[in-house]
Amino acid sequence: MEISPTVFEKKTSTIAGLTEAQPAGAKGDSTMGQDSFLRLMTTQLKFQDPFDPVDNQAMVAQLAQFSSVAGISEMNKSLTDIASMLGDNRLSDAKEWIGHSILVSGNYAVANKNGEYTGEFELNQATDNLSIDLLNENGEIVMFAELGRQEAGPVEFNFDSKNTDGTPQDLGRLKVRVNGGSISNLATWVPVASVKTSDASGSPTLVTPIGNVLPSEALRIG
C-alpha cells in the first residue's frame, strides 16, 4: 500500500498576521518612550518561541540600551535648558550694559551724558534739501540742522544741547523728523539706565528713557 507523504502547510506567524492586519497608510509614533518600550518588550515575551526563549543577557542588554538612550535624551534636554539660561540675554550679561548707550530703531532721541542727541538713518535717494528737526512733546522745534545736498546712503546726526557755558542740557525725549528726502532704518542712541526681568522666566529688559528694550532689539552698543 502506498502511503502518501503528509503535507504540512506553512502557517503565517502571529507577528506577521498582526502586521498584515494594520490598515493601509497607518503611521506609528516616530519616538519611543518608556511606555512604548515596555509594550514592545511585553509583546516580544508573549510571542517568543518557547523552545528558544530570549536569552537573559540579551534582555538585560536591551534594558540597558533603552536606559542609556533615555538618559541621553534627558541630559540633552537639561543641557538645552542650561544653554538657554546662559544665552546672550542672560541677566548678568545685560547688567554690563548699564552706563552704555545702545542704538535702537525708532524716531525718539534722548541726550547722553554729554548732552548730545545722536542717531542715524538711511537716505534712500539723493536730495538737494535735507534737514533734520528735533521736536519736544508739544511739537515745537527745539533744534534743527540744514544738511542741504546729500547723496543716497547712511547719514549720521549729532545735536549738541550744551548751553553757552558748555554745560550739557537734558531737554527730555525729542522726536526726530527728517525733511526733504525719503529715508529708512531711522535709529537713535539711548543710554541704558538699569536692567530688570520682564516675566517669570527671568528674561532681562534694558530700561532706557524711551522705554524698555530687549537686548535682542539693540542694533549696536556703544
Descriptive overview:
This protein has 4 helices and 12 strands. By secondary structure, it is of the alpha+beta class. The protein folds into 2 domains: 35-46 and 54-86; 91-221, Immunoglobulin-like. The chain starts with 13 loop residues before the first helix and ends with a strand.
Q: Kindly give the count of domains.
A: 2
Arithmetic mean of pLDDT: 76
In CATH's first tier, which class of the largest domain applies? Answer: Mainly Beta
Kindly estimate the percentage of residues that lie in beta strands according to DSSP.
25-35%
Secondary structure tally, helices = 4
Which architecture name of the largest domain does CATH use? Sandwich
Q: What Rg is obtained from the alpha carbons, in whole angstroms?
A: 36 Å
Please give the alpha-carbon distance between the first and last residues. Answer: 108 Å
Specify the structural class.
alpha+beta
Strand sequence of the main sheet, in spatial order? Answer: 6-3-8-1-12
Order of helices and strands: HHHHEEEEEEEEEEEE
Question: How do the helices and strands line up, and which of them pair or pack?
Answer:
Layout: H1 14-21, H2 34-46, H3 56-85, H4 91-95, E1 101-105, E2 108-109, E3 116-123, E4 127-135, E5 141-150, E6 153-160, E7 174-179, E8 183-191, E9 194-197, E10 204-208, E11 211-213, E12 220-221
Antiparallel strand pairs: 1-8, 1-12, 2-7, 3-6, 3-8, 4-5, 4-7, 9-10, 10-11
